[in-house]
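I hope you will forgive my troubling you with a question about protein structure. The matter concerns a single protein, recorded as an amino acid sequence and a row of backbone structure tokens. Please examine both parts with care and let me know of anything in them that strikes you as inconsistent. Thank you for your consideration; the sequence and its tokens are set out here:
***
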Amino acid sequence: MPVGLTQDAGWEIGVSRTLRQPPQAVWEFITGPEGVALWLGAEGPLPTEKGAPYRTADGTEGEIRSYRPGDRVRLTYGPSTVQVAVTPGSSEDRAVLRFHQERLASAEEREERRTHWKAVMDRVAAELG
């Protein structure tokens, strides 16, 4: 089976980076209005209730699948699913941020989303310093 192709979730991609910020600071940014606008393209803070709908500036619609404060959020993004997770890094002042997207249609879409998530990660890192 090719890299990135799963038996039950189609094509998937994951991007992660260790940031020089405490996990709580990364979580607050990612789920706050500035962070949500940056990685999701939606206005306002991220909804926290399971099943809550959202809509991005480009018209993509989805809903929250799960929300664990300080840890991770899963949501639908059109026909795919995105998970954003923040975990402690190697010290108190570091956190690992992960973006994972599954149920992608093809290897080409997987590469497109890899490029997208890497650019998002660069912007998040720049914003958080």
